[in-house]
Amino acid sequence: MLQINGLYAKVEEQEILRNLNLNVKPGEIHAIMGPNGAGKSTLGNILAGRPGYETTAGSISFHGQDLLEMDPEIRAREGLFLAFQYPVEIPGVSNMELLKASVDARRLHKGLPELSAIDFMKMAREACKAVKLDQSFLKRGVNEGFSGGEKKRNEIMQMMLLEPSLCILDETDSGLDIDALQVVAGGVNAMRAEDRSFIIVTHYQRLLDFIIPDYVHVLAAGRIVKSGDKSLALELEAKGYSWLEDEVA
Amino acid sequence: MSEQVEKLIRKAYSAGFHSDIESNTLPPGLNEDVVRFISAKKGEPEWMLEWRLKAFRVWQTMEEPTWAHVHYPKIDFQAISFYSAPKSFEDRPKSLDEVDPDLIETYNKLGIPLHEQEMLAGVAVDAVFDSVSVVTTFREKLFEAGVIFCPISEAVHAYPELVKKYIGSVVPQRDNYYAALNCAVFSDGSFVYIPKGVRCPMELSTYFRINEQNTGQFERTLIIADEGSHVSYLEGCTAPQRDENQLHAAVVELIALDDAEIKYSTVQNWYPGNEEGKGGIYNFVTKRGICHKNAKISWTQVETGSAVTWKYPSCILKGDNSIGEFYSVALTNNYQQADTGTKMIHLGKNTRSTIISKGISAGKSQNAYRGLVKMGPTAEGARNYTQCDSLLIGDQCGAHTFPYIESAHPSAVVEHEATTSKVSDDQMFLCQQRGLDAEKAVSMIVNGFCREVFKQLPMEFAVEAGKLLEVSLEGSVG
């Protein structure tokens, strides 16, 4: 599914990722944890192709193709989805309008016809229900006046609609209360499938109480310094990150 | 009055829309003889000629205004021809193959059917059967309702009393330099009269007058909504229109008598010039309406064309409880310059006005909003709300806001809000991460920005306007 080899990347002339390696197979859930400034969000942005994030060495293969060669919209159409840490507002553009365009862009890319408005609405309503968002959110401007929790649920709703093969959740759990956290986790768990993988970037282990990862990686100083299973997350929760940083040093 | 009007209406439709004049083109230059020639060509009565001459004499004493935030080479009025006859069949393109391919490409992007493309491009086609039958049904319906909709040149003959009474009553001859010029040399335009209490059964559109050639340069429109009547008028067309005249100076006058309502929507897409800004049209327009008691005038405009736009559709709220509205989207790209806005003159008690202006600047363009809200000494309890938003695309364009507020009544309330924003990288990236390409993303964000104005447009026009923005913004990202 996704193979990252020896990745180096910088943002505004500052090197953030240094020799990062990661292999994600279909159906797996990988949790990426680590201290502030370790490069967790940079990884998500590099994968999605955000302008300003520059790869200086290494390679990323996605479904056997060179990901770094693709424009951000092509990556999206190929099935890569990033749930944003800070979803931005687009005044006047309804959620519905953006999502219909997204779904259709994805379908056309796969050689499928555009979805009829009726079929689309049926799917969109289902997705809203799954994340406990009122249907009125479909008609509202994208993230316009949404609360923090609503924005995150809106991201998961979009993810469900677009049915990506690789879902990257960039600190989706930050700032969520326990109910919203369960909704987000419920969405992810409902989407688990043999041909779908997840990269879950998080600070805290509490999300992992609801989404059980196959692997937990610790990202520090721009590379993965330790990998393990769910128990690593618990260890981190108890001991913090400093012991790992000392170990690396 | 109404009996007289009815008689006139019947008379009008026997005359028909199209009048062929066998004629030539005047040599460049402007003097009294030119004004006399134009009037004679149209067979105008003496009073109309006198009116034109008076305007011409006023114009000669006036100076070209320089206060607008636009720059262009000084216009040499003696180098312009003020009368050109409709092109003869022989001189017009024989088929679309002879028309500028860029123009055809734009028509296709806008989804304009082939036969309409031929009309717009001025192709010499004998008869466009579809549109002929549409026009016929259209006129029958209007006739039943008693609505007059005809070229103003025809109204001068058919309804001299109405024209005499109202022409220049809202925009006087000496109003401004370009209005005075228009009064002297106006070519043609629309005349509309809605009788008392009549709700016009359909949207009146200049589209139905598309077969007339060369009315554009000094167009003059006069719309009178009699007491308690209602009309919606659509001007222009989303398709870029072929026009060989660089200077355009139109005048539009609206009269809404007691309890009447006029909704005037414009989509303007004249040639803006090439990517270096060469060859585009200069558009100096004076549009103004007067509202009597409880009347309402609503201007909605979507401006994407012209190299230079100078245009301020305004309302004089004379009657108590009257309402004025201005909804505007002005988009400039490449080297376009627009200085546009409105004037709301509150005279009556409890008059209300709303101004929603959305300016979008891309490329190296300059986009200015200029608006005046004036609360007269008699405007007790008057209110205005103004919202002025500018959106910048790229870092080489400019957005400017010049609001003027004059209040002479202590109970009047004026609110003004203004914002300037950029299409942010984060918004673009969100759209792209959801699979949209950059151009689609920009057009979606810009359309969202304009939503409040678009929803004022008639449904069909709104869809076209959205598409038009998309085409106009092409190449602004990348």
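qc> The interface with chain B takes residues 48-52, 71-73, 76-77, 81-82, 84, 87-88, 90-93, 97-99, 101-102, 105-106, 109, 141-142, 158, 162 of chain A (CB under 8 Å).
qc> done
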